[in-house]
Automatic annotation (TrEMBL), chain A:
Protein name, entry field: Signal recognition particle receptor FtsY
TM stretches of this protein: none
Alphabetical list of InterPro entries matching this protein: AAA+_ATPase, P-loop_NTPase, Signal_recog_particl_SRP54_hlx, SR_rcpt_FtsY, SRP/SRP_N, SRP54_GTPase_dom, SRP54_N_sf
Residues annotated to bind GTP: 110-117, 192-196
PANTHER family: SIGNAL RECOGNITION PARTICLE RECEPTOR SUBUNIT ALPHA
Gene3D superfamilies: P-loop containing nucleotide triphosphate hydrolases (3.40.50.300), Signal recognition particle SRP54, nucleotide-binding domain (1.20.120.140)
């Protein structure tokens, strides 16, 4: 286990040191009192869990403390971990048990700059390494050099890229890509899209069209629609996940940039309110910096050992 | 998701008559609501704490006026204090010998390259002769992105392959001097404040080309991490201004307060879209009402 998650743990090392020392000072030899609850709230809010989720966790922890007759702060750590863990799910990558869907089509969506293109490349590498025939598509025809960016990744990883022209129709690229993936017998096709803020009506409509057209090109596709969330995002992440889920039936999330010291605590609100599993975690800018989401490592990152 | 702060405060003060002074108890209850509003807006926990303490002090004993009910009275004070914290909008400080160097720094994907192009277009409109420098050799096609944007706004982009950013900036500076450019603008690679090697690189560039402006570009959707980001960059280079990007979305932008409190540097622009013209100067009053989540009521209160 330590092996599988070693990178994650290494990536979070610096953060963990900071959190750890803070946690030691909070829990240390203290008794459970109001100051402790305040400190705990501070830790949770500073990890971007948000007020409601933090309050919810504290409430439930207070109940546990009373039920179990705890009075040493230190005894709470274990229960805090469980409390946090229980709010998240470790789910398998749906591609693993989608035997009949070929090509398995994944649509990548999210706001500007969250990490979609990089994550597309990272995913492609993971699937390629597991022996699958992978193809990626440059559905961002809008942003300057977005196509070049994905093309560079394709070249580096030796993965075919389907692309149109800058300024072209993104839905048409997606359609062509599905056709090409079928024709070439690809196992999996990952379609990158342009970043868009969830409040921009026209851009969300455009994304719906891309989603629709993929379904026309292949029945049942896209099989997965994943939102890439920037782990540094605060309370807005919930609104992002909500809007994209409503518009294009997002059924999974990827938490990018967890290495940058952000804790990604909004994942708890997203799990609670939208029942959206987090499938992968981005831990750096290199193609190998993507790991299956692991709630234990994630929770460790938030509270330390 | 956000219940309007006004409504919440009105609920809090429901039992209070319009006249008299705000008591310590009244203010206490009100501050609980203000605290929630600020935390929901992503203002950093520690900043909220000191801010609320400040406002509390100011609010106790305040006479409730004819024009405003107690809730509005509290909001007026909070709003005024927020405006004070956010500070006035400031222009770029382009003084000294030419070429004047402006450098853009920030986290990955925060909007540096896009704002670099936007500001370049803005300054060109003011008659400056601009040279853009593509100092992000790391991210795939980052150079091409700046070159494409440069072409769109008809501004030259300096780049040499295989040269580390500090040396590249040095060469660009010489080139800008000889070519009679008035402003040289450096787009740097995104980096986390935890990445010491990349942070040192920023320090090296600063030492070589002495920017008159180092602008920290921050995504307005950023959460509690904003404070540490601001600290990290401030500790490495001399940040002179902030740009809040992606303000065209529905984020509250409370990070602006956290960053301001840490760095004390002024907000210089807001990024309000992906387009090259989507750049605005900011208005502290408007940003304050956005952070508090109440566009409508502020006008009323300011007039009272
Ligand atoms: N540190 C770190 N950086 C990341 C990670 N994922 C992406 N990035 C960086 O974040 C920046 C934005 O990533 P992109 O993949 O271009 O994001 P995008 O969502 O495709 O952006 P747009 O297409 O412009 O909306 C780049 O500098 C990436 O290198 C990650 O997990 N960790
Ligand atoms: N809606 C909106 N999008 C923006 C704004 N500013 C930048 N963007 C978008 O955000 C994404 C990232 O912008 P970039 O300028 O590439 O960000 P960067 O900081 O240079 O990214 P790296 O170089 O990878 O660190 C792109 O999709 C931009 O189009 C803005 O003000 N509003
Ligand atoms: Mg992209
Ligand atoms: Mg850039």
């Amino acid at each position: 286990m330590a092996d599988i998650f070693s990178k994650w743990i290494k990536g979070l090392d610096k953060t963990r040191k900071v959190t750890f020392s803070r946690l030691t000072s909070v829990f240390g030899t203290n008794e459970i009192d109001d100051y402790l609850w305040d400190d705990l709230e501070e830790i949770l809010i500073q990890a971007d869990l948000g007020i409601d989720t933090s309050a919810d966790i504290l409430k439930s922890l207070k109940r546990t403390a009373a039920d179990q007759g705890l009075f040493k702060a230190n005894d709470l750590v274990k229960f805090l971990k469980i409390e946090l863990m229980n709010r998240l799910k470790d789910v398998p990558d749906p591609f693993q048990d989608a035997k009949d869907a070929k090509p398995f089509v994944i649509l990548m969506v999210g706001v500007n700059g969250s990490g979609k293109t990089t994550t597309t490349a990272k995913l492609a590498k993971i699937y390629q390494q597991s022996g699958k025939k992978v193809m990626i598509a440059a559905g961002d025809t809008f942003r300057a050099a977005a196509i070049d960016q994905l093309q560079v990744w394709g070249d580096r990883l030796n993965i075919p890229v389907i692309a149109g022209k800058e300024g072209g129709d993104s839905a048409a690229v997606a359609y062509d890509a599905v056709q090409a993936a079928i024709a070439r017998g690809s196992d999996i096709l990952i379609i990158d899209t342009a970043g868009r803020l969830q409040s921009r009506f026209n851009l969300m409509e455009e994304l719906k069209k891309v989603h629709r057209v993929i379904g026309k090109a292949l029945d049942g596709a896209p099989h997965a629609t994943w939102i890439v969330l920037d782990a540094t995002t605060g309370q807005n992440a919930l609104s992002q996940a909500k809007s994209f889920k409503e518009s294009v039936k997002v059924n999974g999330a990827i938490l990018a940039k967890l290495d940058t010291s952000a804790k990604g605590g909004m994942a708890f609100a997203i799990a609670r309110e939208l029942d959206l599993p987090i499938i992968y975690a981005g831990l750096g800018e290199k193609p190998e910096d993507l790991e299956r989401f692991n709630r234990e490592s994630f929770v460790e990152g938030i509270i330390g050992d | 998701m956000f219940e309007n702060l006004t409504e919440r405060l009105n609920k809090v003060f429901a039992g209070l008559t319009r006249r008299g002074k705000l008591s310590a108890e009244d203010v206490d209850v009100a501050m609980r609501e203000v605290r929630i509003a600020l935390l929901e807006a992503d203002v950093h926990y520690s900043v909220v704490k000191s801010f609320v303490a400040n406002v509390k002090e100011r609010a106790v004993g305040v006479e409730v006026s004819e024009a405003l009910n107690p809730g509005q009275q509290v909001i007026k004070i909070v709003h005024e204090e927020l405006i004070k914290t956010l500070g006035p909008s400031e222009r770029l400080n382009l003084t000294g010998e030419k070429p004047r160097v402006v450098m853009f720094v920030g986290l990955q994907g925060s909007g540096k390259t896009t704002q670099t192009a936007k500001v370049a277009k803005f300054l060109r409109g003011q008659g400056e002769r601009i040279l853009l420098v593509a100092a992000d050799p790391y991210r795939p096609a980052a150079v091409k992105q700046l070159q494409t944007l440069g072409q769109r706004i008809d501004v030259e982009v300096f780049y040499q392959e295989g040269i580390a950013p500090p040396e590249l900036c040095k060469r660009a500076f010489v080139y800008a001097q000889k070519g009679g450019f008035s402003v040289m603008m450096i787009d740097t690679a995104g980096r986390s404040q935890l990445d010491q090697a990349l942070m040192d690189e920023l320090g090296a560039i600063q030492k070589i080309v002495h920017p008159v402006e180092i602008l920290l570009v921050v995504d307005s959707m950023i959460g509690q991490e904003a404070l540490h980001v601001a600290e990290g960059f401030r500790d490495t280079v001399k940040i002179t201004g902030l740009i809040l990007s992606k303000m065209d979305g529905d984020s509250r932008g409370g990070a602006a307060i956290s960053i301001r409190s840490v760095t004390g540097v002024p907000i210089k622009f807001l990024g309000t879209g992906e387009g090259i013209d989507a750049l605005e100067s900011y208005d502290p009053s408007r940003l304050s009402s956005r952070i508090l989540g109440m566009g409508d009521i502020i006008g009323l209160i300011e007039r009272a």
